[in-house]
Amino acid sequence: MIELRSITHAYGDRPVLHDLSLQLAERRIAILGGNGSGKSTLARLLNGLIVPNAGNVSVDGLDTRTDGRAVRQRVGFVFQNPDTQIVYPTVEEDLAFGLKARKLPKPEIARRVSVALERYGLDSYRHQPAHQMSGGEKQLLAIAGVLVLEPAYVIFDEPTTLLDLRNRRKVVELLRGLPQTVIVVTHDLDMVMDFDRALVLEDGRIVADGPPALAVPAYVERLG
Ligand SMILES: Nc1ncnc2c1ncn2[C@@H]1O[C@H](COP(=O)(O)OP(=O)(O)OP(=O)(O)O)[C@@H](O)[C@H]1O
User: In this protein, which residues make up the domain named ABC transporter (predicted)?
Assistant: First the structure.
């Protein structure tokens, strides 16, 4: 479980999150809210990319402030822009990169890369330079690059924003099939209607929290 205790966060003198306390245990959780409401900041706190000014975030009892490395191994993070995430020239090398960094045995790396290439429909791109892929293909590669590390939790920051309808559907189905706890920051309300829980942020405060059937209409109403 991911737990936030009395989190407050500011960038310089601009407060962004105000005294948030949450327990995140459901399998699929959406984080909704208007632009600038603090969604990405909240998401980044969950795997220790950002450490809060005050309060604590823990993942299965590991504190992001003191056990950042162990937390990041447990919590994968998929950035909105796949170019932030893709590091290696070819698709195959990119998928192997994180596994090599974890010093997994070579046969295990080869096995996981092959499974990922097939599972995420990237097999025909295996030897292709990643920078030549389309935005949607890169997004799938970036997602695959995180999932190949088999994190227990996966955070997605606006995973469908850059995608056309077909790739959006692919990502939606991929998310649906993941066994992990998945936390998704998004403006794509349709995608989250079958999630277990939706949190709505407004000016750094939670203003709705519950099943999407209740939280999403509350959000739409507040947006006016
Ligand atoms: N690194 C930073 N330095 C200074 N201010 C920042 C930084 N990151 C975010 N902010 C500010 O904090 C506020 C919340 O930003 P955040 O990215 O968390 O919002 P968001 O809800 O994800 O927005 P969006 O839907 O537009 O992506 C915004 O006013 C933003 O300008």
Answer: 2-222
206 C-alpha vs ligand 1 centroid, how far in Å?
A: 16
Locate 107 and state its tokens.
């046969």
Q: What is the fold of 2-223?
A: Rossmann fold (3.40.50)
pLDDT, block means (10 residues), the chain with 224 residues: 96 94 96 95 95 96 95 94 85 92 93 92 89 86 92 95 86 90 95 96 96 96 85
Q: Read off the amino acid at residue 218.
A: A
Look up tokens 């447990």; give the residue: 74
Nearest to 120 by CA among 174, 180, 182: 174
Report how far residue 31's alpha carbon sits from residue 29's, in angstroms, rounded to the nearest whole number.
Answer: 7
69 vs 107: CA distance, rounded Å? 25
- Type of residue found at 137: E
Please name the amino acid found at residue 213: A
Query: Is any ligand 1 atom within 6 A of the Cβ of residue 124?
Result: no
- pLDDT tens track for 82-101: 888 888 889 999 999 999 99
User: What residue ranges do the domains of the chain occupy?
Assistant: 2-223
- Verdict on whether the full-model pTM lies above 0.95: no
CA of 15 to the centre of ligand 1 (A): 10
User: How far apart (Å, rounded) are the C-alpha atoms in residues 48 and 120?
Assistant: 27
